[in-house]
Write a structure and sequence with these properties.
Blueprint: H1 6-15, H2 17-37, E1 42-52, H3 60-67, H4 70-74, H5 77-87, H6 91-96, E2 98-102, E3 108-115, H7 118-136, E4 142-148, E5 153-155, H8 161-190
Antiparallel strand pairs: 1-3, 1-4, 1-5, 2-3
């Protein structure tokens, strides 16, 4: 097995510049096309706090259990269908970006919708928020307090596209150099 040195890498690149260029450009272009066509996603969140109704004297544990049904209300077919119409997206799209959960040790229901535009995310979470509050109107045990109604959507953080593009450049360069080295070793091994 021949030793790979810096000199042998440089020699392989000099002997096969066209191969290096083609193998570099193909993943580079494909990677950049993918990166720069990635769409941003936006999230909107609303929080509903529950408390026992004034005339109820249920214990904290029962109240906590009763609050655990509201994530199901938020993600019900009716609530999701109404929110999908409000956001102008399909129910499948909305369901994939909708989360609703009651935080441990609290009676706070957090509803988050993640969609392609800030308007869609906000419209969806506002609709689900209203569905939960409406469903609570008939609840004899818990009263919903609007702690944080959904007010705006924010762009989800992700790695900056420039950083991803630089990573693609480095990866494409490594692949191109390796291709030249492998071709050099295989062709020299035949001769």
């Amino acid at each position: 097995m021949p030793q790979v040195t810096r000199g042998s890498l440089v020699a392989a690149i000099r002997r096969r510049p066209l191969l290096v260029l083609v193998v570099f450009l193909v993943p580079l272009l494909l990677g950049w096309i993918y990166i720069f066509t990635l769409s941003s996603s936006y999230s909107a969140t609303g929080v509903v706090a529950f408390q026992p109704r004034i005339d109820e004297s249920n214990g904290r544990d029962l109240t906590s259990l009763l609050a655990r049904r509201y994530p199901e209300v938020a993600q019900s077919d009716q609530s999701v269908g109404d929110a999908a119409i409000a956001a102008g997206v399909s129910t499948a799209t909305l369901q994939s970006g909708l989360t609703a959960s009651v935080a441990a040790e609290t009676l706070n229901l957090s509803i988050t919708s993640t969609l392609d535009t800030p308007e869609q995310a906000l419209a969806a979470v506002q609709s689900v928020f209203k569905s939960v509050v409406a469903a609570n109107a008939d609840d004899p045990y818990l009263e919903a307090l609007s702690v944080q109604p959904p007010a705006r959507a924010t762009e989800d953080p992700g790695p900056p596209k420039l950083l991803l593009a630089l990573g693609v450049v480095v990866l494409a360069a490594i692949v191109a150099v390796l291709a030249a080295l492998i071709a050099d070793l295989l062709l020299d091994g035949d001769g």
